[in-house]
Amino acid sequence: MNEIVDMGLVNWSRAQFALTAMYHWLFVPLTLGLSFIVAFMESIYVKTGNEEWKRMTKFWMTLFGINFAIGVATGIILEFQFGTNWSNYSWFVGDIFGAPLAIEGIMAFFLESTFIAVMFFGWNKVSKEFHLLSTWLVAFGSNISALWILVANAWMQYPAGMHFNPDTARNEMINFWDVLFSPVAINKFLHTVSSGFVLASVFVLGISAWFLLHKREVALFKKSMLVASIFGLVTSIFIIINGDSSAKLIARYQPMKFAAMEALYEGQSGADLKVFGIVSTEKHDSSLFNLPKVKYTVEIPKALSLLALNNANSFIPGIKELIHGDSVRNILPLQEKIRRGTLAREKLAALHNARANKDTATYLTLKGEFMDPAFQKNYFAYFGYSFIKDPHQIIPHISLTFYSFHIMVGLGFFFVILFILALWYLFSQTIDQKKKFLWLALLSIPLPYIASEAGWIVAEVGRQPWTIQDYLPTFASISKIDSSSVQITLFLFAILFTGLLIAEIKIMIKQIKMGPKDH
Amino acid sequence: MFNFVRKIFWFYVDGFRSMTVGRKLWIIILIKLFIMFGILKLFFFKDYLGSRFSSDEEKATYVIKELTK
Asked: Does A121 contact B11 at a Cβ distance shorter than 8 Å?
């Protein structure tokens, strides 16, 4: 298959998916986090009866509504692409995505669509308590909707709970709970939604800072800051703890991604953690696959081993070991994985031919061998490697993965400091005098968007070339379509999404400048 | 039951009538959905396998051939 594959088509298809996913993700996290912040504010209003909290709730709810309306359904475009650009992949995935996405559709429809109407239209028409319940249900509904999409993504990173049917070439779900509760799925859900919580907290903090800088509604926006800072601090600390678990899972299940995140080319016992580095244009020699050198590094001794395996002296394989193997540490060389994957692929072809030729005896024998758990574990688990022709194909883009990871982590720690400072100044009642801090908070609004997008780059670029980890690479996943049609739709999407983003920013800014409405 | 449905209907109608910024958002949503489903999905995003094969068996045969050749 590799010989005839059009890499231009693969790259354009990847670019289109990346563009739409990243634009989609500009809208989603604010919805996830702001829905909870609004729910907290409304809860305080219902508890205290203080009308100022109601004004505040309504102000942030309007911004939530703008973001929700502009962002809604932008993710459907990703599903369009599956069927058109990635038909082999879509077919191969089988019914794995069916259940999660169907549940997502039902949840989104019933919880969000129904209760969001009560949220916006129900003031003074339903009881305070029912309105509050609706707000909370929207918050939970939107976050649980995200769960199902993230479960689908986690399955691609760590396929679980399925078996492959060689007759249909599709994966079939054998255990829904293994798909839903795989360690990667749980971690990914918590990490992703909490990134939305942090993003919304920085958003509320920054907008509130703007009001304080303009000395408008100072008392009200100090309260907003307080809610955002507490929520932001708790979730930004949580995301660091959860990020640590995420790193451990990546080290275990996606060691090549882990090596790329830290540009670890040669394995080390007691591996150092690079907290900073510049990926140079200078290259190593072919013994290290001509990978770019990383210069000006600042390292914490043994911290990478500690981070990955809770043991400061443990061995972390580098890209070299992951390609050449390490018999002492039971790391299979790439060539062996290719051999095993090729055997699985040849058996699938033989089985298919026997079936087509109605050679029942051969077909039954081959099918029995193919479905044997030992064959599945030792051979079919490497199916995707049969498409690999060159070691470079399994190395993710180093600088993109390395920088994205470090930007994400660096900003994660920055947010903790930002929220601590905000709370310190709020409790010492000096925040309105701290002009530099208020500007910092305002100018920080884009940063969690950058961190969040960087996180997705680590997750997705870092697992290249796989669409389904170890089972299917991108270049075996695509449809045979004209790459010019992918280019055209890519530019159409770019125009559509840019238009939506401009509309959102303009409407948001107008609404923010208007400020909270009077009673 | 009829009363309940009527109440919900008027709840939505009143809600839409009293919208301010929401009207602009609805226009954006409708334009967006039209572009997505009326143009992009209809003309640019045909189901590759669905438009070429009529049965699941044909689709499976095609994908197996693609993956094993």
From this structure: yes
**The model's pTM:** 0.93
CA distance A81 to B44: 10
* Closest CA of chain B from A506, distance in Å: 12
Cβ–Cβ contacts within 10 Å for residue A280, how many? Answer: 12
Q: Which amino acid is at A468?
A: I
CB atoms within 10 A of CB B32: 21
For testing the chain B interface, which of A88, A91, A490 should be mutated: the one with the most B CBs within 10 Å?
A91
Task: Please give the residue of chain B at the shortest CA–CA distance from A66.
Answer: B25
Distance CA A425, CA A183 (A): 39
Which residue in this structure is represented by tokens 């043994």? A302
Interchain contact B40–A (C-beta under 8 A): yes
Residues from chain B contacting residue A87 (CB–CB below 8 Å)? 47-49, 63
CB-based burial of residue B17 (10 Å sphere; 0-12 exposed, 13-18 middle, 19+ buried)? exposed
Q: Select the residue of B22, B46, B67 nearest A169 (Cβ to Cβ).
A: B67
Q: With contact defined as beta carbons under 8 Å apart, do A475 and A225 qualify? A: no
Q: Is the Cβ of A478 closer than 8 Å to some Cβ of chain B?
A: no
C-alpha torsion sign, points B31, B34, B40, B41: positive
Distance from CA of A74 to the nearest CA of B (A): 9
Closest of B58, B67, B60 to residue A345, by C-alpha? B67
* Of residues A467, A487, A484, A471, the one with CA closest to residue A87: A467
Does A296 lie at the interface with B, CB-CB under 8 angstroms?
Answer: no
CA dist., res. A336 & res. A324, Å (int): 9
Q: Number of A:B CB contacts under 8 A?
A: 117
Going from N- to C-terminal start, the domains of chain A cover 2-164+171-254+396-514, 260-391
Supply the ipTM of this predicted assembly. Answer: 0.84
Tens of each residue's pLDDT in chain A, 519 residues: 545 567 889 999 999 999 999 999 999 999 999 999 999 999 999 999 999 999 999 999 999 999 988 887 788 888 889 989 999 999 999 888 777 777 777 776 677 778 888 898 888 889 999 999 999 999 998 898 888 889 999 999 999 999 999 999 999 999 989 999 999 999 999 999 999 999 999 999 999 999 999 999 999 999 999 999 999 999 999 999 999 999 999 999 999 999 999 999 999 999 999 999 999 999 998 888 899 999 999 999 999 999 999 999 999 999 999 999 999 999 999 999 999 999 999 999 999 999 999 999 999 999 999 999 999 999 999 999 999 999 999 999 999 999 999 999 999 999 999 999 999 999 999 999 999 999 999 999 999 999 999 999 999 999 999 999 999 999 999 999 989 989 998 998 899 889 988 988 999 999 999 999 875
List the alpha helices (DSSP H) in A113-214: 114-121, 128-157, 176-180, 183-213
CA atoms of A236 and A238, how far apart (whole Å): 5
Tokens of A461: 């670029």
Contact call for A169 and B29, based on CB within 8 A: no
Q: Is the dihedral of CA A258, A263, A269, A271 positive or negative?
A: negative
